[in-house]
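Researcher: Go.
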Amino acid sequence: MKKKVNFMCTAFRDGFQSVYGARVFTKDFMPAVAAAKEAGINHFEAGGGARFQSLYFYTNEDAFAMMDEFRRVAGDDADLQTLSRGVNVVGLDSQPRDVIDLHAKLFKKHGISTIRNFDALNDVNNLIDSGKSIVDAGLRHEVVVTMMSLPPNTEGAHDPDFYEATLKQIMDAGIEFQSVCFKDASGTSTPAYVYETIKRARKLLGKDMNLVFHTHDTAGVSIQQYVSAIEAGANQVDLSMSPVSGGTCQPDIITMWHALRHTDYDLGIDIKKIREAEAVFRDCMKDYIIPPEAMTVSPEIPFSPLPGGALTANTQMLRDNNMMDKFPAIVEAMAETVAKGGFGTSVTPVSQFYFQQAFNNVMFGPWKKIAEGYGKMVLGYFGKTPVEPDAEVVKICAEQMKMEPTTKKVVDINDADPKKGVKVAKEMLEKEGLPLTDENIFIAASCKEKGILYLTGKAQVNGIYKVDREEEAAKKKGEYTVTVNGKAYGVKLTKNSAMVNGNEYPLNVAFGIDENAIETTKDTAGSAPVASDASAAASHEAVSVYAPMPGLILRLDVKEGQQVKKNQVLLIMEAMKMENEIYAPCDGVVTKIAVSQGQQMQSDDELLVIS
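Model: Structure:
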């Protein structure tokens, strides 16, 4: 008789995060949840991780309403699981105990039955309070040891000895749990290390404990990892469904079913029904654009362990800001940020910190601008890193951030922080006249200004990459409406001609600008407008402040008519999940504010004017 291998379907959380940067509308995928349920799947990842903040940041939806709908569709008997980042719960920043406790209570209230709870640094202190809140709320607690592989010729943690020691620390800390997961978000752990780690874990935990292995296919070894884990004693793996399987995602259910054929193991599925469910899912997602890097198995990932779940979240942000050309250089630079950052596992939020610092190193020069999250991590404000960070980098972070290194417990630091907690969240809501519900309090605490934008109705749908069917049809026909200097023209393009307002003209398109060819048209085309004397004079009396990079206007700190001093903070722009302060270039009076909170800007857009 074959031994059944259990699995959780991650398509509707990790799959969305890995492929679409977590930006998917609830109504679009619920029919696929129903189809998966009909196919016999009863264990789903239904939220948490990036699928909490992303609903408020991008789809302009309520994550609690999404979880309620998931429970309704999946049914009362389904095991619905979410992902929590230890003391960070479902955000990039860490939280005090009252917010950690509220997280567990609210997720229980909104239909969740299991929470997978991890710490990217494998600092067990960060799992104690979060784990207690999960258990006290009546939820099933799946505690996690996070894994990755270090680049060749690099040493420091991330071997079976380290993972075994971490598991022993969890057990010695008295943390109550009902399941243990070994989570490799980058998919880089070698199958040999996976086998040895799971083998030791099974020996420590006994034969009855639910033991899970989780990975991504980004580095191309996921199936071998899973088979190694199963043979070593794991009784559950995480699997996804097409079109969000393979590449940056988990392996597909069908792929794993095939890998286990003619072995002693079986997933216990009706493969015909699974294929039918995947067909429904593909139809649901047909309008969503899949970034090419999301489906790519990259041989470079072991050298710069960018996790599947965060890879497209970052590339989508680069696309939002027209900076995708920087991606290869950022990935290359990430290896150094990992090596000098103390070898925290490349999983959110630490993977974001690595990427943000690599982004800054590319954009501003190596270590010239420290990303807040990265700086706090190496200084100890997110917990103890597996190995000591680079001493010179620690010094740079301390100097730039004006913070001293710490060894205090993260929750103790946060409990004493006057800018964090339920009380602060309530004050944010009261300032805007918003109801003080538990849900609103948690949204404000975990999403801050962007959560308030959502709750006040100022947020907008943004960053959703879907096929525009009307645009595609127009392109196929070659038909466009082109407006030049305020006048509209109906243009139909063919291979050798352009029909403009019903008149046909010969057409030839060449790459680049041929200065010799266009020389004869310059006189009739007109020249660039010249500023009038009045506007030229005004330019000497007023200074425009422009966006230094694409980003979202997160907060305005000045008003029109306000006197400002040189180097005073004018506003905060968010780019790549980092807050960037925009300073006054001179003394003067703010005579014009050209932006509003929540507005997306491009590089060199005018922000305000100082006279």
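Model: The first helix runs from residue 11 to 20.
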